[in-house]
TrEMBL record:
<keyword id="KW-0547">Nucleotide-binding</keyword>
<dbReference type="InterPro" id="IPR016484">
    <property type="entry name" value="GTPase_Der"/>
</dbReference>
<comment type="function">
    <text>GTPase that plays an essential role in the late steps of ribosome biogenesis.</text>
</comment>
<dbReference type="InterPro" id="IPR003593">
    <property type="entry name" value="AAA+_ATPase"/>
</dbReference>
<dbReference type="InterPro" id="IPR015946">
    <property type="entry name" value="KH_dom-like_a/b"/>
</dbReference>
<feature type="binding site">
    <location>
        <begin position="120"/>
        <end position="123"/>
    </location>
    <ligand>
        <name>GTP 1</name>
    </ligand>
</feature>
<feature type="binding site">
    <location>
        <begin position="295"/>
        <end position="298"/>
    </location>
    <ligand>
        <name>GTP 2</name>
    </ligand>
</feature>
<comment type="subunit">
    <text>Associates with the 50S ribosomal subunit.</text>
</comment>
<feature type="binding site">
    <location>
        <begin position="183"/>
        <end position="190"/>
    </location>
    <ligand>
        <name>GTP 2</name>
    </ligand>
</feature>
<keyword id="KW-0677">Repeat</keyword>
<dbReference type="GO" id="GO:0005525">
    <property type="term" value="F:GTP binding"/>
</dbReference>
<feature type="domain" description="EngA-type G">
    <location>
        <begin position="177"/>
        <end position="352"/>
    </location>
</feature>
<keyword id="KW-0342">GTP-binding</keyword>
<comment type="similarity">
    <text>Belongs to the TRAFAC class TrmE-Era-EngA-EngB-Septin-like GTPase superfamily. EngA (Der) GTPase family.</text>
</comment>
<dbReference type="InterPro" id="IPR005225">
    <property type="entry name" value="Small_GTP-bd"/>
</dbReference>
<dbReference type="Pfam" id="PF01926">
    <property type="entry name" value="MMR_HSR1"/>
</dbReference>
<dbReference type="InterPro" id="IPR032859">
    <property type="entry name" value="KH_dom-like"/>
</dbReference>
């Protein structure tokens, strides 16, 4: 199931970025006492009581403003609201309730999404009474917090995760393979979707950024069911000309979260760019199945070495995706699109693979016998037992004498051994180490 998305919404300077940094565990957003400092939305993964969710920080909402940047920030926040499953509405307990707070509350109420109201800057017990004013917003029980001091955050997070039970409950059981088509604008994502769907579902044009929103298309091919999610392309920040382009990143992140398999589309005419690396990195970090799709292959002048050279360059530029298969297609002519569909099915199966514990331990024991772990910090690594904890992506728990002595090169060796025996093509693998004392 996709991780829920929680957006922090509120006027400028109520402490959104301070809270975001506190929950993220590191200083990500610029925090300054000037309204409008948080220009770009930022996101991170947060875990509370075994619930993982994506937290979005937004610029503050100024309801009536002619300031271009503040207008853009409002649009940015609106898109965060559209994408979010739960909204964390922050208000300033020192300043008290304002006309803008009422306006924002009205805007949020119209979304019919769960809203958690957090009254910030309540730094001591004497200020607790300040919260009663905020009942007037009509959004239920205000929760008092101090983002700067870390007070009341547990109660606030408890309230947030309460709403997750109702988020995407039916999505987990759906039988179709969910596929996100991601990449830079004009890489051919919408053309590919139209080719698969067989009708003009997305607007296709040569103007980068034509596709504004993520679009879902349910497709049955033979006995197989797919849900294709087309996304607005991500543009490099320096190239952003239109404010709406800035906000496509979050939609892409949301699409990746919902997907089983991500098609990372590369424009064959341009090769792998820094932006392609960043987009592919989102899918990798989210633990999704990945296929690298090189599009517009029909317009490339080729000889018998072209494909090999291109493959070599991709492997070099996207080294962290060495597990991802590469396929060369033309969305326009349909070249290899059927083969790509077969590859999606294969990678989805690999991503969801479950390996029996006995077989898993045999492979790891044999790997350790062939190559002993290096001595790290004065002692050798001992692996007692391995089990698969979860799928999507395949996650393995190693019970060892000391997690601190696991060397990254040996972890890489074990990963290669698992891939050699079980395939696991197109899916990242996660290793978790737990300390187990010898009996």
């Amino acid at each position: 199931m996709a991780k829920p998305i929680v957006a922090i919404i509120g006027r400028p300077n109520v402490g959104k970025s301070t809270l975001f940094n506190k929950l993220a565990g590191r200083r990500i957003a610029i925090v300054e006492d000037t309204p409008g400092v948080t220009r770009d939305r930022l996101y991170c993964e947060v875990e509370w009581l075994n619930h993982k969710f994506t937290l979005i920080d937004t610029g503050g909402i100024e309801m009536e403003t002619e300031d271009v940047i503040l207008k853009q920030m409002r649009r940015q926040a609106e898109i965060a609201i559209e994408t979010a499953d739960v909204i964390l509405f922050m208000v300033d307990g020192k300043t008290g309730i304002t006309a803008d707070d009422y306006e924002v509350a009205n805007m949020l109420r119209r979304t019919h999404k769960p809203i958690v109201l957090a009254v910030n800057k309540i730094d001591n017990i004497e200020m607790e009474a300040n919260k009663y004013d905020f009942y007037n917003l009509g959004l239920g029980e205000p929760i008092t917090i101090s983002a700067a001091l870390g007070l009341g955050l547990g109660d606030m997070l408890d309230e947030i995760v309460k709403h997750f039970k109702t988020v995407s409950d039916d999505e987990e059981e759906s039988p179709e393979i969910k596929v996100a088509i991601i990449g830079r604008p004009n890489a051919g994502k919408s053309t590919l979707l139209n080719r698969i769907v067989g009708e003009e579902r997305s607007i296709v044009s040569d103007i980068p950024g034509t596709t504004r929103d993520a679009i879902d298309s349910y497709v049955e091919i033979g006995e197989d069911k797919f849900l294709f999610i087309d996304t607005a392309g991500i543009r490099r920040k320096s190239k952003v000309k239109e404010e709406v382009e800035k906000y496509s990143v979050l939609r892409t992140i949301a699409a990746i979260e919902r997907a089983d398999v991500c098609l990372v589309m590369i424009d064959a005419q341009e090769g792998v760019t820094e932006q392609d690396e960043r987009i592919a990195g989102y899918a990798h970090e989210a633990g999704k199945g990945v296929i690298i799709v090189v599009n517009k292959w029909d317009v490339i002048e080729k000889d018998d070495k072209t494909m090999n050279e291109f493959t070599k360059n991709i492997r070099n530029d996207l080294a962290f995706l060495d597990y991802a298969p590469i396929i060369f297609i033309s969305a326009k002519t349909g070249q290899r699109v059927n083969k790509m569909i077969e590859l999606i099915k294969y990678v989805a199966n690999q991503h969801a693979i479950r390996i029996k514990t006995g077989v898993l331990n045999e492979v790891i024991s044999e790997a350790v016998m062939m190559k002993q772990p290096p001595i790290e910090k004065g002692k050798p690594l001992k692996i007692y037992y391995v089990t698969q904890a979860s799928t999507k992506p395949p996650t393995f728990v190693f019970f060892v004498n000391d997690p601190e002595v696991v060397h990254f090169s040996y972890e890489r060796y074990l990963e290669n051994q698992l891939r050699q025996h079980f395939g696991l093509q197109g899916t990242p693998i996660r290793f978790i180490y737990r300390s187990k004392q010898e009996d």
